[in-house]
Structure formats: structure tokens, C-alpha cells
């Protein structure tokens, strides 16, 4: 399906009916039955002003026919044999409607997952903390009546103020320093205080702020910030720009001091790094969006910084600690508790930036499967809010090439991309209504053929969408 130049598109979404009934659709979408296709979750692009929507897949001749291993292999093998994918290619396909594996290609061996690692991190975060959990940033009293301390609570999306017209700050709605400063100023003025000294406390997280398994250029080039329990705009010096603060907590405290001044409270000195007193009274606080919304954001736009903050929270909640190593220990124990076999998986971070991560595709698929299980409603935000092919997030500009367009609107998947590494992990219903969970990857792709390699994986996922596969 070709995209008309300059045309706007909306999503028409059909609700999931059976095994993934709890998987919801993006905000602002409509629900209806698609003619000729079993009632299921889809997202077909419709050109605004067109007389009718583009045609969807033809009805299956024998609806409900179970996919077979040989049928799935015939469907996806041509795409997986694309030479741009290189010599180490894997695929795992699970029939979630019937509870059985239908296809595996190197599925038990490990692959560098890149950002599909975020499926594991967000799943573990939801399991450990719960989808309704919120992170609190607060101001507490200091050592004197005229001193206060800004305490970081590990809110990954804390911002200075919502940016007008900036979609990244539209949903989930972030907590802001502007609101915190207004509330703090009101409380201080009520006590007759108009001048304060300001301390800041980011001690919730411990250990190195930069993962030792990342390439040094990631922080040098602004790919990711040093992870902090107190930052604004994920450590960006200016929202939307690449420059990162060397000390995100100090940058946040400095920004907060400026907002206090606007609110009528003078800060008499440069903010100082301190440890808040045990039992200090809360002056004011702001709370983040619910964790379910934050995990949606992390997976939708593949937010490396947000994933690393969530990793630290997993470590804290599982009583391992607030370092990234503790987070990894907590992630492993949480996934194991969910019944997933980590086997020979090597996990070095929460975002997938480390090239030494190595996970079996079965594990990535298991996380998606857990999210659609009736036994784990707390995990549904992961499969429900994965990017939609050719429509949202990191899949917005994919599934548009020859052989891949049939998957547009039907495939939901988390993407993963590093040099020579490409992966997809998600779910799709085939044309008979069977819900398929899949993971696809290569980590030895031709480095100069990245777009072609990604397109090959798109074609493989799209083949599942169009598959009768008997």
C-alpha cells in the first residue's frame, strides 16, 4: 500500500476478541469490524478524504485453520534468506491461540537484541512495581528553616515544563519542575520564607551512572545520559537537542532554582549536593504518569534513558539495590518468577545499547506471551502498546516496501537496531485469526545494507500477517 504524498492518515482499530482481549488500542483510535477479516486488533491506514479505506486481506477459505510448522516456514523463509541479513539469522513463532511453538530457526541460540531488550525491561518493571505505580519528585525541609532539598525519585520523564507543540511531552503527561516550584513557593510563602538555600539529593540510584558495557561514544555523542534518579528532560541540556548535561542532577537543581525565582522565591547560592535528612518534612511533590504509560512511551519511541531508569527501579523494588548491576539481577529474578527460562541469556543493561547483550529469541517471545496471558493482566501494557507497523513509534516509516505492506497496521512489534543488528519482537494475527507471537533477528547483517536488512525482517513479519500457513 503506497502512501499518498502529503496525505494524512488515521487509524481504524478493531478490538482483540479472544486470547488478547485485554490488549487495548492507542488513544484516539476508533473500533469497528473489518469486513472479511476475523474480529481482531488491526490498524488499517485510511486516507483522509478518500471515498473508502484500502482493501484489507481477503477472508480465509477455512477460518481458524491451525498454522503448521511447514506452512510458517514456507511463508517466511524467502525473507529470512535475504543475503543482507548475513549468516546469523533467527526466528521464533508461537501460536498463542493454541499454546504451541510452530516455528524456530536458531531460536535457542543467542542474539544481540538491541532495543528489543526493552520488551524484557518493561515487562519486568510492570511485574515488579505494578502498572499503576508513579514516581515522586519532592522537596523536603533542609537543616534550617530557610533551606530545602530537591529529592529525586527516579522519574524518567520529569521535565522543566511541558513544551508547546512537542508531542514527546503530550503523552504520557509528565511531572514538571514548574509545577513543583509553584507548589514549593506557595508552601514557603505561607511560612513567611522568601529566600532559601537549595540542596539536591539524587542518592536513590547508586553505582556508576554510565554502564561499563556501552561504547564510550554513546555518552560522548549524546546517545544516552548518565543515568540519574534526578534529572529533567532525560539529561538533555535543551529538550529535543542532542547535548547532554555532564551532571544531570545538578542541571535539574539549577533549573529548579530558576523556576523558584520565577515563582517568587530567591535561591541564595548555587545548589549543593546533599543527603536529605531521614524523616524530613515534605514541602511539595509532583508525581509521574502511571508506569503503564511510561512503559508505553519507552517501547513506542525506544527510549534508552527511560529504560535504564526503569532497570534501576527493578533493582530497588526487588531489594537488590539501585545500581545497574542490581537492576540486572532484579530483572533476571523477576522474569524467572514469571516462569521465563533465561538459560544462556547474557544481560548487560536495560536499553539494549550494549553489544554484549545476548538473548535467545524464545525469551523475547516469552515476554510478549506473558503480556497477553490471562494470568498476568498487570503486563498487558507491553503488547498493547508496541509500535504498529507503518503507523506509530519506531515502526512509523516501516512496512512500506514491496512484500511488507501487507503487514501495515496488523503487525505490532518492538524494534531493535545497532550496526549490523536488526530485530523485531511482537505479535500479529494471521488471516485465519490465529494470534502469533514472534521474534526475528540478525546480528551479523551487512553493515552497509541496513535498510535492506530491516526490510527483509519486515517482509518476514508481514508474511505472518498474510499467512494461512496450513
List strands and helices in order, with pairings.
Elements lengths: L8 E5 L16 E2 L11 E5 L21 H12 L8 E7 L4 E6 L4 E2 L5 H13 L6 E6 L5 E5 L25 H14 L4 E7 L15 H4 L27 H15 L3 E2 L4 E2 L8 E6 L3 H11 L2 H14 L6 H14 L21 E2 H12 L8 H4 L27 E7 L2 E9 L5 E8 L7 H16 L5
Parallel strand pairs: 1-2, 8-9, 9-10, 9-11
Antiparallel strand pairs: 1-3, 4-5, 4-16, 6-13, 7-8, 7-12, 14-15, 15-16
The shape, in one word, is elongated
Share of helix, binned: 25-40%
Alpha-beta classification: alpha/beta
> How is the quaternary structure best described?
single chain
Number of strands: 16
Order of helices and strands: EEEHEEEHEEHEHHEEEHHHEHHEEEH
CATH superfamily name of the largest domain? DD-peptidase/beta-lactamase superfamily
The CATH topology assignment of the largest domain is Beta-lactamase
Q: Using the CA coordinates, give the radius of gyration.
A: 23 Å
From the N-terminal CA to the C-terminal CA, the straight-line distance is 26 Å
Overview of the structural elements:
It contains eleven helices and 16 strands. The protein is elongated. Strand 8, helix 3 and strand 9 (195-201) form a beta-alpha-beta unit. Mean pLDDT is 86; it is low at 1-63 and 165-170. The protein has 470 residues and is α/β, with parallel strands linked by helices. Strands 7, 8, 9, 10, 11 and 12 form a six-stranded mixed β-sheet that branches. A five-stranded antiparallel β-sheet has the order 5-4-16-15-14, sandwiched between helices. A three-stranded mixed β-sheet has the order 2-1-3, with no helix packed on it. It has two domains: 63-129 and 297-465, DD-peptidase/beta-lactamase superfamily (Beta-lactamase); 136-289, no CATH class. Helix content is 27%, strand content 17%.
